[in-house]
Design goal:
mainly alpha, DNA polymerase, domain 1, hpI Integrase, Chain A, three-stranded antiparallel β-sheet, 13 helices, 3 strands, about 55% helix, globular
């Protein structure tokens, strides 16, 4: 991190790390966004500390980013970081007024998630063929994503002690260090048993993680990297679909969509996905509506 970082920003980052227990990736994003904003404020008014600037500084910053060609989603994220900082400063009486409240976030046209059809999902799970450890591992990774809907960051952090194979569940540590239980289907349970059997010979120091690092990491982490998992899943997705936007996260969307299509309650899906609010889960009802519209337009005589 930049040594010239403002002390208030530094304290805020410590707060979201220690108190809010945000992930390393989230903290890194906040740090980048706020340092960029702080640097802009130095040029905007060299005579004043950014804390003493009003909402015009934030608006000018957003206009500056817009002129650079940043899309609405990125602009909204940058503004959200600034708003979180100002909320923290108000609560800690560093500022008397939360001027960031006066700045409106740009409107985002939310793109509906990309997901697999039932046939594509079945075809995907048949792809890793072979009984060597690599293919059994790949098969398990795909099965876990589809069976549980977990995030890639959650998958790589699964520990052997988190698995209750006899009960068919895994304890997951999600965003904000919130724990939840996800269910294993028959396919995932079978793949998991096979993988645990074949990987018994592991070095004991790496045995804690279900998917240990393939090589020694500079960061000292003993689990497989997100990039490695992303590349593994992407390789198989390319075989069954031409949709370049499909990714490991698409299997999370697929899990939720197929659950909803088969009558699952939206609240149950929310809990299984580890969403904080129902609004995050309601995107899947939009997917269902779009699917119905498509069927209607293709089938109804007066739709054409």
């Amino acid at each position: 991190m930049n040594n010239s970082i403002h002390p208030v920003i530094s304290k805020f980052l410590d707060h979201i790390k220690i108190v809010r227990r945000y992930s390393v990736h989230t903290i890194r994003s906040y740090a980048y966004d706020l340092e960029e904003y702080h640097m802009f404020c130095k040029d905007f008014d060299p005579e004043k500390d950014f804390i003493k600037l009003d909402h015009l500084a934030i608006q000018s910053y957003m206009q500056f980013l817009s002129r650079k060609g940043l899309n609405a989603k990125t602009l909204a994220r940058r503004l959200a970081s600034i708003k979180s900082l100002y909320k923290y400063m108000l609560l800690n009486e560093i500022v008397k007024v939360n001027t960031a409240k006066l700045v409106r976030a740009p409107k985002i046209n939310h793109e509906l998630p990309h997901y697999l059809t039932l046939k594509e999902a079945k075809d995907l799970l048949q792809l890793p063929v072979g009984d060597d450890e690599k293919n059994i591992r790949d098969r398990l990774i795909l099965e876990l994503f589809y069976a549980t809907g977990i995030r890639i960051s959650e998958l790589i952090n699964i520990k052997i002690d988190d698995i209750r194979l006899d009960e068919g569940v895994i304890k997951i540590l999600g965003k904000g260090s919130k724990e939840r239980i996800v269910m294993l289907g028959k396919g995932a349970t079978h793949s998991l048993r096979n993988f645990l059997m074949i990987s018994k010979h592991r070095d004991s120091k790496d045995a804690n993680y279900l998917f240990p690092a393939l090589r020694k990491s500079k960061s000292g982490k003993k689990h497989i990297s997100e990039r490695t998992v992303f590349n593994i899943v992407k390789k198989y997705l390319k075989v069954i679909s031409n949709d370049e936007k499909l990714s490991p996260h698409s299997l999370r969307h697929t899990f939720a969509t197929h659950m909803l299509d088969n009558g699952a309650d939206l609240m149950a899906i929310k809990d299984l996905l580890g969403h904080n609010s129902l609004s995050s889960t309601q995107i899947y009802t939009h997917l269902k509506t779009e699917k119905l519209k498509k069927t209607y337009n293709q089938s109804h005589p007066h739709a054409k």
